[in-house]
Amino acid sequence: YNPWLKFKGGRGLATGAGGTALLFPFVLVLWLILWAIIYLMKKNIHFANIWSSIMCLIIVFTSTDVAAKYTFPHADVVGFVILFSMGLFIIILTKHIEPLIELIEKPNIFKRKKEDE
Asked: Over the stretch 58-107, which tens digit does the pLDDT of each residue have?
C-alpha cells in the first residue's frame, strides 16, 4: 500500500521477504521451502503464495518458541513473533483476494496436475 503509487503496487511479497530476512530469517526460509514445494506440485504462483503463507503462519503459531529463538535481534517476547507474522500474513492475503477468489471458483484446483499437461 504505497502512497507514492496511489496505494497500488505489487502483492507485498518482496517487501515482506526483505523485512523478514532481517528480523526473522527462520520464517523466510520456511516460507521459501513451502512455496517451492507447493509451486512444484501445482504450477500456480498465486496458489503457492497463498498456501505457503497460510501454512507458514500455522507453523509459526505452533512453534513460536523455535521461531522466537531465531529472530534478530532476539525476541524476548514470543508475542512479537506472532504479531509480526500475523501482520505480514494479513498484508499478503489482502493483496491476494482476487487471485484467491479465482482459485476458489476454478474447478479442480486442488487436484494434482498430471505430468503430460
From this structure: 988 888 888 777 777 777 777 887 888 888 788 778 877 787 787 777 76
**Are the CB atoms for 57 and 86 separated by under 8 Å?**
yes
Report residue 33 as a C-alpha cell.
Answer: 521451502
How far apart are alpha carbons 85 and 19 in whole angstroms? 11
Give the span between the Cα atoms of 95 and 97, in whole angstroms.
6
pTM of the model: 0.68
Burial 89-98 (b: 16+ CB within 10 A, else e): bebbbebbee
| DSSP result, 28-69 | HHHHHHHHHHHHHHH--HHHHHHHHHHHHHHHHHHTHHHHHH
